[in-house]
Amino acid sequence: MSQYHDPANVTNPEHAEHHIVTPRTYIIVFATLLAFTAITVAAAFVNLGIFNPIVALAIACTKAVIVILFFMHVFFQSKLIKMTVAAGFFTFLILITMTLSDYISRAWGLW
């Protein structure tokens, strides 16, 4: 442990600034997540054929991005942390796309 105090946070730039999130922001995020939950329920009653899982996953990914940005405080972090989280989420989207391409390309009921 170093005895040196770095007031400008040159040594650890990721600890440069703390952001206090207001309750208003959390209320807006809560209302947005409730709206997307209602959209998810409404989409479940609409017959879109093979696009039902695609729409459901798109809504779920949108809700996941909102949770990642605000509840995990990525929105207020440095660009390096944002890029790291975006790379992980992009990898997740690639895996979901590959899974859905297999799901859609199957000949359901033709065998």
Model description:
This protein has 111 residues and is mainly α. It has one domain (23-105). Helices cover 62% and strands 0% of the residues. The protein contains 3 helices and no strands. It has helices spanning 23-44, 52-71, 79-105. The radius of gyration is 20 Å and the shape is flat. The protein starts with 22 loop residues before the first helix and ends in a 6-residue tail after the last helix.
Q: Order of helices and strands, N to C? A: HHH
Strand content: under 5%
| Termini gap | 67 Å
Strands, count: 0
| Structure class | mainly alpha
Q: Helical element count?
A: 3
Percent range of helical residues: 55-70%
Mean pLDDT: 84
| Gyration radius, in Å | 20 Å
Question: What is the general shape?
Answer: flat
Low-confidence stretches: none
Major beta sheet, specifics? Answer: none
Q: How many distinct folded domains?
A: 1
Please tag this protein with its features.
single chain; about 110 residues; mainly alpha; about 60% helix; about 0% strand
Itemize the secondary structure elements and their pairings:
Layout: H1 23-44, H2 52-71, H3 79-105
Helix pairs in contact: 1-2
